[in-house]
Amino acid sequence: MEVPCIAVPRADGEESRQALATAGVLDDDHQIVVENETLYIPVTDPTAVPDRFETTIRELPARQTVQTPADILGYEPSLERLGDVVIVDEDDSDRADEIAAAVIASDLPVRSVLNRASKIKGELRVRDWELLAEREDPDTDRSPTETVHREYGHEFLLDLAAVYFSPRLATERHRVVDQIEADERVLDMFAGVGPFAIPAASRDAEVVAVDLNETAIDYLRENARRNGVSECITAVSGDVRAVADDYHGWADRLVMNLPHSAGEFLETAVDLAGEECVIHYYDIQHDSDPFGPGIEAIRAAAEPEYDVGVETEHVVRSYAPHELNVCLDVRLTRS
């Protein structure tokens, strides 16, 4: 059936789909089709599509009805999907088991269901997990906590039991990466499995990715290989403070995504900064003054050696009651 749709590059598919959903014009009755690295995403009302998209007409198949966990349960459970893993956060064990059974019985392409069993803890920022249910998959020998997450045209292999990863930051990561230009020298001070570093390298930046978690660095190297950017990334296992001397004055751009304690690494960031350097500084602060403490800390570390210019004050998400996860995009220019 011919229906109105937009045509976008495959790498922009998730961002475009979310934009259409936000605008209320995403057509859920027809399937998204990919052809020659172009995605055709159906829309309900071409006249209400955001101006940055051009609409066209194309024959798209009707979406097949699938059975969801909500269909089985009779209520909408709180779920988070990460690749072929579904995550729940339930204190009630009976309810957790009920949800897990419904997920496995549904048509979702899921291999395992995990329940959060602890808060994020330790220097490596990992948590414990309870395996609630698992669907047999003869095509893989991956553990139930290991999965492949796809984000803005890149894929990331990771083990939730061994590394920190948040799919909720996908839009924020894309916002930062979209600012990177070819030949920039980018240093990710807390790189994890590479969700900032690998897209940066795909934009032809030279990337150094550092993380204290040796397992995360192993995954980062594998993910660089999977995404075809191994030659553009130097992956370093260790405390970024211990390797700073090797990259003194090197960076054009620094990513500091360690919100609770990034301030402890600002002196190192200044040491890594080149003549001009943009810092993406992540912080958790009270909503009464979410940006002031971070700006003050950056100025204290960088001035008078650098002039400090705040380019963006950005709220990433709500973190807790009256607490915000924020990002400051700050440009340092040597005085």
From TrEMBL:
Protein name: Class I SAM-dependent methyltransferase
Keywords, ordered alphabetically: Cytoplasm, Methyltransferase, S-adenosyl-L-methionine, Transferase, tRNA processing
PROSITE patterns recorded: SAM_MT_TRM5_TYW2
UniProt domain SAM-dependent methyltransferase TRM5/TYW2-type: residue ranges: 79-334
GO molecular function, one term: methyltransferase activity
Keyword Transferase: yes
Superkingdom to which the source organism belongs: Archaea
CDD domains per record: AdoMet_MTases
